[in-house]
Amino acid sequence: MVLISSSVAEEGLPGPGPYGTAKSGLHGLARSLAWNGGRDGILVNVVAPGFTLTDSRPDIPASVTDALAAATPTHRLSNSDDVANLIVFLGSGANGNLTGEVIRDGSAVARAPHIGGQSNTGYRSARKPDLLTGRTVHWRRRYG
Predict the structure, then answer these.
(1) Alpha carbon of residue 84 to chain centroid
(2) Per-residue exposure over 95-113, b if at least 16 CB sit within 10 Å of its own CB, e if not
(3) What is the mean pLDDT of each run of 10 residues along the chain (144 residues)?
(4) Residue 89 to residues 56, 66, 84: CA-CA distances in angstroms?
């Protein structure tokens, strides 16, 4: 079983609170289902794609997609085939024992907060521009 989540479940996004909440709920559901079905050979995982290039996003300027791609380890954004191939693998016999996991594609880190310093409270925070809206976003994440 493969559940489809989103990087919004972990990174958050200004505005769509119910969307991120629902998607993050899939992460816990997958772990519970993995325990419940594991003895019967049922594997349950979550795919959490990040910004994915699709035909439904033709109006996004190249400068935005280039900036998002530059923020990924591979310097490219995933496309729908990349995500589909991951889903096919997870649901195939080639996946022998991977279960209860949240798998992020390479684009999922494009909005991830990997900047800013760690404070003495154990939180990392920074202000950074949201490349889709142009607004400055403040984030805080607990580490440790």
Answers:
(1) 15
(2) eeeebbbbbbbbbbbbbbb
(3) 86 74 90 95 92 80 84 87 93 94 78 38 47 55 42
(4) 25, 28, 9
| Res 30: pLDDT | 94
User: What does the pLDDT read at residue 96?
Assistant: 92
The burial of 30, by beta-carbon neighbours within 10 Å (0-12 exposed, 13-18 middle, 19 or more buried), is given as buried
* CB-count exposure of residue 89 (10 Å: 0-12, 13-18, 19+): middle
H or E, element range at 18: helix 17-37
- Please tell me the predicted confidence (pLDDT) of residue 132: 58
Residue 37 tokens read as 């079905």
Q: Report the amino acid identity of residue 62.
A: A
Query: Residue 143 catalytic?
Result: no
Q: What is the DSSP string of 65-85?
A: HHHHHHTSTTSS-EEHHHHHH
Catalytic residue among 16, 19, 84, 138: 19
The β-bridge relationship of strands 2-4 and 45-48 is: parallel
Structural tokens at position 127: 């202000």
